[in-house]
Amino acid sequence: MAKSNRINKWLISGPPLLYLIIFFAIPSLIMAFAAFRFPGDYGGLLPLIGPNPDTGANELLVTAENWRDYLTFENFGLFFTDSIYVELFAKSFWYAGITTLICLAMAYPLAWLIARSPKKYRDLMILLVILPFWSNFLIRVYAWMIILGPQGYFSMAINQVLGLIGIGPVQLMFSHVAVIIVLVYVHLPFMVLPLYANLEKHDMALLDAAQDLGASGWQRFWKITWPLSLPGVWAGAALVFIPALGMFAVPDLVGGTDGIMIGNLIKQQFLDSRDWPFGSVLSIMLTLAVLLLAGFAALIGRGGKRNAL
Amino acid sequence: MHSKQSKWLWAAALLAYAFLYVPLIIVVVYSFNDSKLNAEWVGFTFKWYDMLFKNEQMLVAARNSLLIAIVTSVCATVLGTLAGLAMHKYKLRLLPLLVLTPIAIPEILMGVSLLIFFVMLNMTLGLVSVALAHIAFCIGFVAIVVRSRLQGMDESLVEAARDLGATPVQAFRLVTMPLIMPGIIAGALMAFTLSIDDFVITFFTAGAGASTLPLQIYSMIRIAVTPEVNAVSTLLMVLTLCLILLASKLAPSALRAE
């Protein structure tokens, strides 16, 4: 019995495990290793295996004497010596942070309203939040390219208003503002869903009790609802912040030269300048940032839950 | 709730809904506009749809997308269901980590690491490499849906079947399988949609060999905003809506907000 159980266990978990080891774990490790290598003559990576000049047979080129020609810490050095890279990281954090805050401000009233609506409408209201998210990501970006474009009604209206108070026409497309608007737009549902899941479980009797005891509306919100909803807030923040941080298509399409983020630099290293080792360094830095943030969010989330109980 | 408060809440919520829907409505409306610019309304036309169906590149890209999405959803559903079952049944360490991390990290990281991997294997980038990559990131989504379905299942049903003399395989086939079927279907549809929509991972693993719809749209909107994109976007939205309706018919419980 115990033996057949073990066989079952491997039969069930084996195939997905094997697949993910080959197509996720190994590529990730190869990328981590690539950060310590040199770029090849025509981009990519300097090969570690190649034909022996004497025999012509393929063999490992790295030896105990020449490993310095193949392995290096220089790529990491470059990241820290030139301040533009760290600055770009800081800017990306700033974009992702602002995006998260705006998403929170927009999602909270919505999630609260849905959670307090009659039960029969809730599924529909949530479905309406998710529905736009099911349309293609690029379409959602494109929609804003129309709106923010110089010929769009929105841009013209804004410029007309600004013109009245004597400020010259502004270009909305290809700016920080455009990047943040679109980042908010594509991530908003990720904030609404965890908030709603949390707010829906709140016991309304707590609010009634507070009201009976004389608490005002704001007091009830800040002393009861907000602290109880913190786990939902942190979950939503993680779901918005992390993908926003690694985004490259949004800044690429609406950010112009001013609005680029880490993702654009990574893409540039891999596809344009083809410096894979440095691209790998940037990817590792992004991974580390994400892991730190996820750990941080989990820690605070747990703390929040404990406080709430 | 005070009526004054709820008025503000409704205003804020309506604003959020408008923010979500107005841009998409604009895309749809302009797809019928008889002007090359997405600005002034000139008149009603189907010509952008007509052009779309004559656009050879676009049709090839659509065929590629469909092919990849079908292969991906079949493979990811099988592997993801196994992963969901394993994660529910056994205490595992490595599998949950490998299943959940691809979902949690920014997509670009998986894209570039798979690019290095495929190039190192001397693989020609194309439909195969894209499908292999899509399967890898879809497994996790299927596994989560299937596992949550299993967690909501009444274990005593399986025990009852065993008490009544069913073998473990019979109990699985006749009791567990039908019960988790809505989860499996939902997972398959999710994998299909994720695959057909994916841009970032496809962008890195497709090479020059294979264009998909998102890649085609990307290269078009990078150059200029054209109503042909509005037309293809509208069609894609209709397709997605149909898929969601199908899902709600096949597995109503799977669509519940979670």
- The CATH superfamily of chain A bears the name MetI-like
Q: The biggest beta sheet of chain A, please?
A: 2 strands, antiparallel
Q: Give the strand line-up of the largest sheet of chain A.
A: 1-2
Oligomeric state of the chains present here: heterodimer
Q: Work out the strand percent of chain A.
A: under 5%
Mean pLDDT of chain A: 82
- Biggest interface found: A-B, 84 and 84 residues
Low-confidence stretches of chain A: none
CATH class of chain A: Mainly Alpha
- Mean pLDDT across residues of chain B: 83
SSE-based structural type of chain B: mainly alpha
What proportion of the residues of chain B form beta strands (DSSP E)?
under 5%
SS content category of chain A? mainly alpha
Number of domains of chain A: 1
Broad shape of chain A: globular
Number of helical segments of chain B?
A: 11
Total of helices of chain A: 12
Any low-confidence stretches of chain B, pLDDT <50, length ≥5?
none
How can the largest sheet of chain B be summarized?
none
Helix content of chain A: over 70%
The CATH topology of chain A is given as MetI-like fold
Domain ABC transmembrane type-1 (chain B): 62-247
Protein name (chain B): ABC transporter permease
Keywords (chain B): Cell membrane, Membrane, Transmembrane, Transmembrane helix, Transport
Main location (chain B): membrane
Please give the structural blueprint.
The complex is a heterodimer of chains A (309) and B (258).
Chain A: H1 2-34, E1 49-51, E2 58-60, H2 74-81, H3 83-116, H4 119-130, H5 137-148, H6 153-164, H7 176-199, H8 204-212, H9 217-245, H10 249-255, H11 262-272, H12 276-308
Antiparallel strand pairs in A: 1-2
Helix pairs in contact in A: 1-12, 2-12, 3-7, 3-9, 5-7, 5-10, 7-9, 7-10, 8-9, 9-12, 11-12
Chain B: H1 3-30, H2 47-54, H3 56-89, H4 94-104, H5 107-120, H6 127-151, H7 155-163, H8 168-197, H9 200-205, H10 213-223, H11 227-250
Descriptive account of the structure:
Chain A is mainly α. Chain A has a single domain (77-305), classed as MetI-like fold, CATH 1.10.3720. Chain A has helices spanning 2-34, 74-81, 83-116, 119-130, 137-148, 153-164, 176-199, 204-212, 217-245, 249-255, 262-272, 276-308; strands at residues 49-51, 58-60. In chain A, helix 5 runs parallel beside helix 10 (249-255) and helix 9 (217-245) packs antiparallel against helix 12 (276-308). Chain A is globular, with a radius of gyration of 26 Å. The two termini of chain A are 43 Å apart. Chain B is an all-alpha fold. In chain B, 78% of the residues lie in helices and 0% in strands. Chain B has helices at 3-30, 47-54, 56-89, 94-104, 107-120, 127-151, 155-163, 168-197, 200-205, 213-223, 227-250. In chain B, helix 1 packs across helix 11 and helix 4 (94-104) packs across helix 6. The longest helix of chain B has 34 residues, at 56-89. The radius of gyration of chain B is 22 Å and the shape is globular. At the A-B interface, helix 1, helix 3, helix 4, helix 5 and helix 7 of A face helix 1, helix 3, helix 4, helix 5 and helix 6 of B. Chain B: It is a multi-pass membrane protein. Chain B: Its main location: membrane. Chain B: Keywords: Cell membrane, Membrane, Transmembrane, Transmembrane helix, Transport.
